[in-house]
Every structure is written in structure tokens, then in C-alpha cells.
Amino acid sequence: MSTSQAYNEEKGGSSSLGEPEYGHDPASGGIFSSDYKRHDDLKEMLDSNKDSLKLEAMKRIVAMIARGKNASDLFPAVVKNVACKNIEVKKLVYVYLVRYAEEQQDLALLSISTFQRGLKDPNQLIRASALRVLSSIRVPIIVPIMMLAIKEAASDMSPYVRKTAAHAIPKLYSLDSDQKDQLIEVIEKLLADKTTLVAGSVVMAFEEVCPERIDLIHKNYRKLCNLLIDVEEWGQVVIINMLTRYARTQFLSPNQNESLLEENAEKAFYGSDEEDAKDDKTETASLVKRKPYVMDPDHRLLLRNTKPLLQSRNAAVVMAVAQLYFHLAPKAEVGVIAKALVRLLRSHSEVQYVVLQNVATMSIKRRGMFEPYLKSFYIRSTDPTQIKILKLEVLTNLANETNISTILREFQTYIRSMDKDFVAATIQAIGRCATNIGKVRDTCLNGLVQLLSNRDELVVAESVVVIKKLLQMQPSQHSEIIKHMAKLTDNIQVPMARASILWLIGEYCEHVPKIAPDVLRKMAKSFTNEEDIVKLQVINLAAKLYLTNSKQSKLLTQYVLNLAKYDQNYDIRDRARFIRQLIVPTEKSGALNKYAKKLFLAQKPAPILESSFKDRDHFQLGSLSHLLNAKAVGYQELPDWPDEAPDPSVRNVEVPEWTKCTSREKRKEKVEKPFYSDSEGESGPTESADSEPESVSESESESGSGTESGSGSGSEEEEEESGDQSEEEEKEKKKKKKKKEKELPRKASLESMGSSPSEEEEEGKKAKKKKPQHDRKGGSESSSEEGSVSESSSSESDSGSDAEDSQLETETKRRKMPPSSKPAPKAAKKGTKEISLLDLDDFTPPPPLPTSSSSLVSSSLVTDLEGLTLIDTSLASTVISPVFSSVKTYELLHRMTGEGLSVEYYFSRQPFAPDPHMVAVQIQFSNNTDSEVKNVRISEPKLLSGMRVQEFKEIESLAPGETTSVVMGIDFCDSTQAANFQLCTHTRQFYGAIQPPVGELMAPVFMSENEFKKEQGKLTGMSEITEKLTLPETCQSDHTIVQRVTSAANVSRVPCGADNEYRFAAKTVTSGSLVLITLEKKEGALAQLTVNSEKMVIGTMLVKDIIQALTQ
Amino acid sequence: MIHSLFLINCSGDIFLEKHWKSVVSQSVCDYFFEAQEKAVDVENVPPVISTPHHYLISIYRDKIFFVSVIQTEVPPLFVIEFLHRVADTFQDYFGECSETAIKDNVVIVYELLEEMLDNGFPLATESNILKELIKPPTILRSVVNSITGSSNVGETLPTGQLSNIPWRRAGVKYTNNEAYFDVIEEIDAIIDKSGSTVFAEIQGVIDSCIKLSGMPDLSLSFMNPRLLDDVSFHPCIRFKRWESERVLSFIPPDGNFRLISYRVSSQNLVAIPVYVKHMISFKENSSSGRFDVTIGPKQNMGKTVEGVVMTVHMPKAVLNMNLTASQGSYTFDPVTKVLTWDVGKITPQKLPNLKGIVNLQSGAPKPEENPSLNIQFKIQQLAISGLKVNRLDMYGEKYKPFKGVKYLTKAGKFQVRT
């Protein structure tokens, strides 16, 4: 803290440079100002409308987050700025949002709609970043929205968006692992992607979500191998690691024969000949059995395509390839990785550390590989100790008869190092060399004995321990050394070393018969002051001497045992008791006594000095688990080679594209190419996703056209007679066309795009009353008709020519173009978007215009519209009881709190005439006091940004007992946040809040069945929410269902051909987005509810509300 | 993958934290501090630490610990390499990767970290892309920003991220088109007591500074490419072309970058440009010793050896040193026991020499080993391996660029054992 304060002071001084003065942030512990006050001014800055102030505030907040200070109380103030125009503010808000969303889930939901909008942006980068932030918000309630967004993005045109989708998969999975199955589908789809951009990310997702689904890789294996070199470096690491595992399950070991030979070779060095002979027989037998090994071409492909990556500048990539070769390549080829790994030793010390760990493991199994690079492992005095010790390990592993002399000479210099830990390790290493290579054993031993006179006790102690181990191999020749060591007991203090010496003397007391009893005498003297481990060895020595030389040592042994009997350590007491019983013959002592000598002086096998890296290679090299030598969380075992190769044909793909573009060489071509390869990868998924609903709507629209014209009768038709004729003609033309096209399903789907606008235009005509824009534009109805024709169906006019082929051609072109060139899809997208916008705007009466005439028109339109809805509902077979009766009343002000004035409100579901974007709220005041209440009005509305309130006219007076009702309009901005305000009377002020149920945020829309289906077709994917439910018995009849749905939401019924389906339509009041509801009854009481809406939050909430209404 | 990142300074303050998934408490760093304490020396902190719930992977760069928190299996090198890339990026942006630089630019740092990782998986690590997203701070820009209120965040979207050559910015324009290549070779060597070479090899890099407009396609060829034994490439280099023709063909990134690094095949004998004569001895039972070192030129190909610096880690028992330098100046830090002798240029006529008395702690046993001498030097205009650039050709653009190649030989890890 103190340093940060100092830093702040310093910062305060230099802040004149225009840098953000985050040093002044509250959390840095200013003494003079409290946190609250500080945060208040940040809030103020955030609320201001100057971007620079907002930016400043956000910078300070981010600085707080960076230092781990809590800034969560600023959440509401910050999140408001999520839609800020300034890019930097926006980015910083994202940073904040992602950090705190988890803690403030409810408020975080407010921001969701911004990202949802972003998901539809024509710019791929904005779509991607929206998805990125949306998926980073860890709020479980948006899981379905995320799921939809990911699915949608997975078939996006842009590979960058698809990459982001792949990134989002693990995020969603960690939030809700129940989504696994759906996510696997997305992964499967993305794995098929042919762009390098996506490959790394999707394999990453694969590894995190479903690493066990190795079957998903088959079809993509060759593609991944071929793309590998062009994938970005981080992706390469992940892919290579995954492919290593894959190859282990799918191919046969390339070393099956060699591995046996190799073992032989090893044994010839160290093993006894007898063993070899035996092994040889069995091996030759097994060799005969085996078929000659032929490497699978796919296996070869993997090895060939990863090899160039050894040249990567990224150490992680090099390591990944190295481990792949180590685990998969034939022995003869593994050597190539040594050079690259040695190169990494020039890198940062952390990299060295990891690489050396892996080299240490490899060098045990494949020593020959690193031998040429022996000198690269020589140690410099400037290396960190942990690196030195690892290098030593490698050097020891590499030591053999030919190079041992150089290595020992090198060790010689190490022993004089200042770094004592390193020296100790060197002595151990010498010991290991000596045990492994018989030739140098004596040299080593002599060297070590010299070290016994070293001044540093640690060195001596370590030497003693190592010598002890070496002596065990051939004790008879070394009684001199043992004598020498016996002398050391006077000086050396390190317990381990003392214990080792004592053990040696005890074990070989026959070689030093004169010295041993004397040593025991000395030790008996100092027994009480020794460490436990030394005491145990003293007892041991005493026992052994007693058995061999009882004459001289009997009393001493008794003495030592007596001392031990009263020792503090129970191990020592136990041992003393045990040994006494064993060696001192008494009447009671049993048969064991006879065997005491055998027990104590048996031949003991010499210890084997092994590398601590032995057998570490059962972990995949390069992995965290290998480094820790323990299984890490999420580690995927490297499977053993299969005995029989699985069917290689699973990897066959119809188009063997992988023969192309295998190399960097061809990158240049690929610069131009990717669009093609994109489109190839692309066209599949997008087409299927897009064309499906369209083709459905297409076929249905045809069948439905009859009913449409039927139901379309009534009041409207008369009004539009003028336009009808031309329309009829057109219809006929189209029908003909359609019939022809139906022969070819492909054609039909192509046509769908062209035909949909015309369809729309028909609808437009029918509902032309709801198209005041055209009215205003054209002035007269007929002209508006023409306008809309030319506007919405340019393709139609193209196809006006009789030559159908040419039309088809243009159509196909249009379909094919989007992926191949960038602007085209955008244009197409824009086009459709504009159309939908037109639709929506058309339904919403425009805001009142200054000219009185048009405003008149629009208001009359509103009533017309309402008329239409009423007609529509009455058209349906059941009659819905007037909505108002079923309407719920909410309390705004209770009689008690309102001091006699009680206020209730309900949503009248009438269009609010002054402003169509507002929801009408009927407010009922009743005066229960016995005096007059005057001047009832609304003041100080506290609204979230964007919300508006149209206050009612002040009620001048309300007589006692009287009740009056007024209407006010509130624009909720399509959110269910409450509108807060003060309710004032002439004496008092009350706090009031109106919170709309989601069903009240919309207004009914009339639609025909066709129109419904068409709109629904546009709102699939992300915008579609489906839920299954069981209808209770009370809610089985048509009547109740319709009633319950309409009471839950302000929607109108859409006529429907099938009798087990119910459709409803509405649009949100503020933005005019369509909300389409479909309820499909299935057998039994089951039903499926589908809501299609651009506003996903509304959709989700609506589904909940309706289900509740239906099932209660 | 990477869950969180903590930046910790030498005194153990966590001065920056960033989380890419849910928040991990700072207390996880306690395990790191524990390991740090145990390690005594900063260099010996193990890069990978296992704690009950997390794994900590750390690097130490420029007096800062970058400690990342991992929850599941991940290749450790992946994380280490990434952390170094982060440090490189800071270096690139702020000129230095220090605590003050990071604190002063905390917002930019945060924006960078946000862009570099998504959910713990690297997203944009190419400096060219990052610079398009977030402009590095310059004094001029910060002044302009403070006046106009504009920001460091690029208004344009990083189209580079979408291209097939992600390392190159789109729409590069220069009035002077230049391409410079620095061939820098380092000699790593261990010389033993008697002056014979125990181990020596040459490691080289070619650092480039390319300021060319548009999309130039360059190819660089060598007179003697066979010299290069083991090469690692910047991703821009077309590997196949190298394999078949031994020509470096690439579309370069914009600005400074490392084109290749290489090792010269070990068959070739390495010329050692300097020799060191040394006489360091400590007398038994007396609190002093003698120190006498002379440096002279050896196989320097007729060029001057300059920038010579010798550093020696003296044994702990050394209290002080009284030396006279015939050339240059020396310092001895009695705390770290490091002797530094800044020699400068070596003139063969008068060889630089440093000699005098070493004062030892009285009563302490004499150090049994002599310290090894680390030598730094530079030789301009020489690639010690003899590597020579043959020619540089440019395709794809019309203008004629200015081309330059510079050679430099340096001492790498050059150690003389005494």
C-alpha cells in the first residue's frame, strides 16, 4: 500500500502530461475523501453527456479494476454507457461489464439487447465483438440466448465471426455444462470449416468440451493436417497435441519391431547374457508372428506436415511437434527434433526449464538423439540453479562409455562451483555415472574420496552418501576407503553422512575388524546427542558387531541398547527392544536368535541409481502433467497404440481436396484463394440454414394462397378494389411460374428469395391502411401501390421478361455471389433488413407530423387498426371475451399509505393516441378521505435512459368518495424496467412505480396466416425460442387457451388452418419489432410453444409468462 | 486456458490483475510468494507451481513477475511463450517493460490484455494487429489527445485480423521506402582455465526494419546459405521456398521484427575473437588475494573489438577489491559481489589490464574456487560465421526501395573459467 501511495503522489505530479490521472482514484486510499464521495463524482462524470468526461471516468474505473479494487457499486452508472458512441468508452465499458456481470446479474441483463443488436450488424467485426462480449458475460439466465447466438454465428458468412463462435463454445460450456450435446453439434459443424482462422479455435473448443469424441475428427483429419502450417501459432499447438492423441488411437506403432530390438541393444550393454538369450527366443517368436509393418499414409501425412513447424519461432509449437515426433514417429526419424529443442535452450530461462525437463525424459529413452549436442548442455556459472540441475540430469543421461571422460572432466569443474546445491547434485550425478558405467567406477570413487577432504561439509556429506552406494557394489576391494571414512566420523556433522558411514562400517565390519569397535565406542559416547537417524545406525552397528565380534563389543552394545531403551523417540526404543530380543540369547528368546546373523549380515543388493525422469514419458510430453509428474486436472491420457489398426477409411472424404495447397509455398495463391475455399466451406451450412425455412414458407404460401384470398374478404377488399385487378394478374403470372419451378426443388428454393418480396407486396396491399408512409409518399393509394411494387420486388421486374432461364441464371448468381465477394452478401443482407424494417415501420403509425392533415390520418389509422384487430379476432371461431374484463389491476398506492387516496392502474391495451410508441396505462384514483384532494399530478419521473412518460392532465380536484380515471402513456423502451415517479397532491407526495408485465409491451397486429409464416421464417435461429409444456386439463379447450394467451400478452390471434395450432402476433410498442407466438398441441396434453422475436429478452420472458398463464 | 494474470514487482506488490474468466482471488499468489521465498534467488523460482486448486505459471522479466493462473491441463510452454509475448508487447508499446511504464499506461495495458486473450485463449498477438486496434502512446499523441479528446483506440476496425497475412497491416504508406536488415551473430563459448575452447557456437539472428508501402513481396538470398544449420522463421517466410532454393521469400510485417534466427553448423570451427590471461589467487591463511586479468585480441578478422565489458561474480568471502585498470573503469559492488570492468576498445599495442589486491573477510576460509569471467564485446561490420547477404529483390510494388544490410558480431554467453 505504501508504495502505491508513493506512486500516486509521484503520479499526481506528473499528470500534467495528459495521461489519465488514475492515480487519483478513490481506492488508492486517499485519507481526506471517503470512498462514497469519490464514486459519486465518477457517477456524475459517467452521467454527463461529454464523451471526454465519460472516458476519463472509465479510465479511472478500469485502473481500479486493474489493481483489484472493488468498483462494483458503479455498475448501474457504467452499464448505461454500453451503447455509447465513443469506441474507447464502449470498450472500457465492456471490460467493466465482463468483470462484474457475474456479481450483478440482473443489471447486466440490461446490456444484453445492445449486443443482440450488434449480432446482426452488417460489419463482421462488430458481429464478432458483440458475440465475444455477450458470451463473456457469465450470467446463467442468458444461456439460451448465448446458445442461439453461437449457433447463428457458427454459420456466419465471415470466418472471423465463426472463429469467435468457436471461442464462445467453451465459455458457454463452463457456464452450463448441460448444453454439451448442442455444443457438440456446433463443434462438429465448425470442425468441418475449411478456413485456417477457425481451425485452431474450434479444436480448442473440442478439447475443452468433448475431447473424448475422437470420432468427430476422422473426417477432418486430413484437412487439419494440411491446414496446419497456415493456422496461427497458438492454434497449431492445440491441434498438434490433439492430433497426437488421435494418431495414437488410429494408427499402429511404427516401432513395434524396432522397440524390441532396441530393448535388446540396451540389455546387451547392461544386462546379463542369460536373460538376453531367453528374451531373444520369445522375441524372435513374436517377430515371426507379426506382419511387416507398413505405415498408414495418414500417419505419414501428419509427420510430414508437422515437420516444418519445428522451425517455428514459437517455442510452444516446436515443443508440440517434438512431442508428436517422440510419441508417433519411427525411431529413425525422431532425431530431427533434437536440433530444434537444443535451439530452444537459447531462449528465456523459463523456456529452458520446461524444455530441459522434456529433454531429460526423452534422453532416457532415446539417448542417441541428443548425443551430438552434448556440449550444448554444458553448464555456465551464470545459469540459475534449477537450470543447472536439469542440465546435469541430461548430461548424466547422455553419459556412455565413449563420452564419459569428457563428461567427468566437465563435472570436475562443476564440483568447484560456488553454488553448493549444484555441487551436491553434481556428486549425485557422478555417482550415477559410476554405477551405470563400470569402466569409470574406480575413477569416480577415487574422485569422490578426494572430495571427502573438501572444506565444505555439504560436499563431504553428499560424497559420503554416494560413496556408500558405490561401495556396496564391490566392498572387498575398498577397505582403505572404509577406513578413511571411519576417521571422518570425528569431524563430519551432517546426520545423513554420519549415518551412512556407520552403516558402511557395520555392514563391512569384517573388512575393518580393528576400527569398527572403536567407532562404536566413540558413538556410544556421543549417542544421546545424535540425530535419530544416526542413533538407529548406531544401534545397527552395535548389533552387527555383537554378532561378529561379541568379545570386544558385548558391553558396548549393552550400553548402547540401554541408552536407546530410554530414548525420547519411540522408533529408537522399539528398535532397541527388538534388537535386544534378537541378538542377546536368553531363555525366552525363540528360534529367531539362531538366525540373527543371517538376518543382519545377509548380502544386500546394491542400490540402483536412477534418474527421477525415468518413466515420465507415460505422460504426454510437453504437458503440464509431465512437468509436475502428476496428473493435472483435465489431462487427457495418451492412449497406447492399438494392436489392430482401426478402419482407415473413416478418414476418407469425398473430395480429396487436401492434395491442393499443402504448403507455405502456395500461400501466395491462397491470398486470393481463401474466398473460394471459404465459399466452399460456407455454402453448405448457410444454404441449408437459410433455404430451409424459406422453402417451407414458399410451399406453404402457395397452398395458403387460396385461403388467404378467402379470408381476405370483408371490409378491406372493397377499399382496395382499384389495385386488386393488377394484383390478380400478377398473382396468376406468378402461380404459373411457380408451378414450373416446382419441378426443380433447387429452383424453388432459389426462387423463394425472389418471390418473397412479391408476397410481401400482396400483404402490403391488404394492409395498406397500415402503410401510412406510402400514403404520405404517394398521396393516393394507387400510386403507393406502384411504389411498393417497384420498391420491394426489383427481382420481380427482372423476371418480368419471359425468358425464365435467364432469370434463373441471375437468381443463381445472386445466391452464389454472397460468399465469393464481400460486398454482395452485405448488400443482400441489407436488402432483407431494409425490407423488414419497412414492414415494421409500416405497422407502426409514425409519430405525429406537424401537418395537421397527416396527423389526422394517422390517428384515424390507429382506430382503423384497432378495428382490424377486433375483426380479426372475431373472425376466429371462438370469441375472445373483451380483453378489458380479464385485465389485471395493479395497485399503485394503497389507501393506507396514500392517506385515504388510493390509486390503481391497469393496462388498458388501447393504443395511446398522442404517441403510438407509448403503452397506455389507465389510472384510477379514488378519494376515500372526507376532504377534497386537489391538484393530483405526476412529477419528477425518474426514468432509465430512453424511457419517456406522457403525464396525464392534472386532476384539479377529487371530491370525497369520488373515483376518477385518467390515461397516461409510458414508453418503456421495450424493457420491463419500472417507470418511477412522484405522485403529488396539493398536500403530499407519494412515490409510485409502474412496472409492465412483458405482455403489455406489445400491441396486437393483424396478420394473415401466410404473412405470419413468412415473418416467422425471417425470425428463425437466434430469434426463435421454443419451449415444451404440458397443458393442464382445465386448459385444453380452444377457448381457454386463446383466452389465457391473450390475457397474458396483448396479442391478436392469427387465423390458422390446422386445428391443433394457435398463432398470435403482436409488435412491441416502442420499436415495433414483431412478436410471433405459435402454440402447437401435440398428442396428450403436450404442447410446444414457439416465440419468434427479434427482441430475444422479450421473447424469453414472454415464453415464461405464457407458460405460466397456460399451466397455472 | 489462462485464467488470470497477476503482475508482481520485486517487493511483492501485486500491481495489476486481469481475469479472463471468473475472478480468482489475489490470495492465490501466496503460493507464489512461498515458492519465491524458498528459492532465495529470483531466477530460481520454479516457473510452474502446483497449488491445491490452480497451477501457477510465471515468468520473470525486467524485474516483474508475470504470474498466470491455470486451472486445467495446458502445455506450460504455451503459457510461458504467451507471457513473454505480452512482455514483448509492453516493451514494444512503452519502450520498456517496467512497473512504472505499466502503471502509467494501465488503461492501454488493460485494453491490450483484453485483445490478446479471449477466454484465456490467445486471440491477437501480432503487434501489427494490436497496433491497429490500440495505438501505442507517444508524447505527441498524448498531447493531441488531451487537446482534442480523441483516444488511443483505433477507430478503424482491424482488418488485418481477417486477412491471410495477419502480420501485415493493410494500407501501409511511406514516403521513403526503406528496408534494413541487421545480421547479428552471437558467440556462445566456454573457455577453460588453460585457454582452450570447451564449447563454442554461433547463434545468429536477422532483425529487420521494413518500411515499405503497399504489399511488397521480398526475397532475400545469401552467398553461403549452407552455413545456416538450424533456422527458425518468422511466420511470414515461405518454408517451401527455403527448403528448395535456400531463399528467404516473404511478405514482411510493417516495422521492426525478427526475420529468422539461426545456428551455424557446429562442424565449423568458431573463431574466438578475444583471449583472456588471468591470474586470480587467494592466499591461504591471509585475508587477501591477487587479481590480474589481461584481455587481448585473437582471431578478430582485422576488425576492432569494442564495447568490451567483463563481469565477475566474486566469491562471497570477498570484502573489497583494490584494483588499477590500465584502460577503462571498474566497479565492485560489495553487496552482490559483482565486479564490472568496462574496458571499451581493445588496441593491440597496449593490452588492457586490470590488477590489484582482493580483500577477504578476515577469518573466513579461503575460497576454493576461482570465479569465472563473463566477457561482452562487439565487432562492427563483421559476421563471424562469414555469412553474407547476396541480394534483396522486391516484387509486387513499383517503387524502388532503399536497402541496407548491417553486420554485427557480439559475445553471447561468453564465459572464461579460471
From TrEMBL, chain B:
CDD domains named in the record: AP3_Mu_N
Gene Ontology CC annotations of this record: clathrin adaptor complex; cytoplasmic vesicle membrane; Golgi apparatus
Species this protein is from: Alligator mississippiensis (American alligator)
Any single biological process term in GO: vesicle-mediated transport
UniProt feature coiled coil, ranges: none
Protein name: MHD domain-containing protein
Keyword annotations: Cytoplasmic vesicle, Golgi apparatus, Membrane, Protein transport, Transport
Domain named MHD: residues: 176-417
Bilayer disposition of the protein: Peripheral membrane protein
Cell compartments where the protein resides: Cytoplasmic vesicle membrane; Golgi apparatus
Similarity annotation: Belongs to the adaptor complexes medium subunit family.
InterPro entries, per the entry: Adaptor_comp_med_subunit, AP2_Mu_C_sf, AP_mu_sigma_su, Clathrin_mu, Clathrin_mu_CS, Longin-like_dom_sf, MHD
Superkingdom of origin organism: Eukaryota
Stored Pfam families: Adap_comp_sub (PF00928), Clat_adaptor_s (PF01217)
